[in-house]
Design brief:
Distance between the termini: 54 Å
Mean pLDDT: 65
Number of helices: 8
Strand order of the largest sheet: 1-2
Strand content: under 5%
Helix content: over 70%
Length: 213
């Protein structure tokens, strides 16, 4: 009897801690995330970037992340008050820089505002269909109004898809594209042998940007 009471108290304490974490941590993340995305939007909407397609991708990514931030964080926050409102562009930006740095005129033509806007629309459609298509047949609402997987297979498939889409493929693609961009810049710089020091400094900046992303 004493052990059951102790287990019950432990569960209650853990539930209390989770409740408090869901109540206060999202507020901090919302404030910092909002400032970050708003500054990105303000910076990349400057007239200086009007003719460059890469900032268009970054703006769309900031807007999508801004919406996702509030959907993902406000939901558990409101759940602590028993309220339940019934949740990737950086790669495209890297690709835009790769196309711009190419010595091939045809490939450089892919880096345009016309193509950027249509690519964003297509990407939004794909991102809604591919990663979340399994939601319609793998999830159900329990009696406690909690969204849960229907079986273990769905849970594994869902986890694999989310890991690949959110943490696996984006970094790999971004690193690969940025490495190719650096190679393009180095190839173009070979024609200017008198500026080696400046070229080396530019390479260092590109590598730093790659690792930061």
């Amino acid at each position: 009897m004493t052990r059951k009471t102790s287990d019950h108290e432990t569960i209650e304490n853990l539930s209390f801690i989770i409740n408090k974490l869901n109540r206060y941590i999202p507020i901090v993340l919302l404030i910092l995330g909002s400032i970050d995305h708003i500054l990105n939007i303000i910076i990349f909407t400057c007239p200086l970037f009007e003719t460059n397609p890469s900032p268009i991708y970054l703006i769309s990514g900031s807007i999508a992340s801004f919406v996702s931030l509030y959907v993902d964080l406000i939901t558990p926050f409101l759940a602590t008050y028993n309220l339940d409102p019934t949740q990737k562009s950086n790669i495209l930006s890297c690709a835009g820089r790769l196309f711009t740095s190419s010595n091939n005129a045809y490939i450089r033509s892919w880096s345009s505002l016309y193509l950027a806007k249509r690519t964003i629309v297509i990407t939004i459609i794909i991102c809604f269909i591919c990663p979340y298509s399994q939601v319609f047949y793998c999830y159900t609402i329990s009696r406690e109004n909690i969204c849960t997987q229907t079986n273990q297979t769905c849970k594994v498939v869902n986890d694999i898809i989310l890991i690949l889409c959110n943490f696996g493929l984006p970094p790999i693609l971004m690193v690969t594209i940025d490495i190719l961009t650096i190679r393009n810049v180095q190839y173009l710089d070979q024609n200017f042998s008198n500026c080696r020091r400046r070229h080396r400094r530019r390479d260092i900046q590109l590598i730093r940007l790659l690792f930061i992303q």
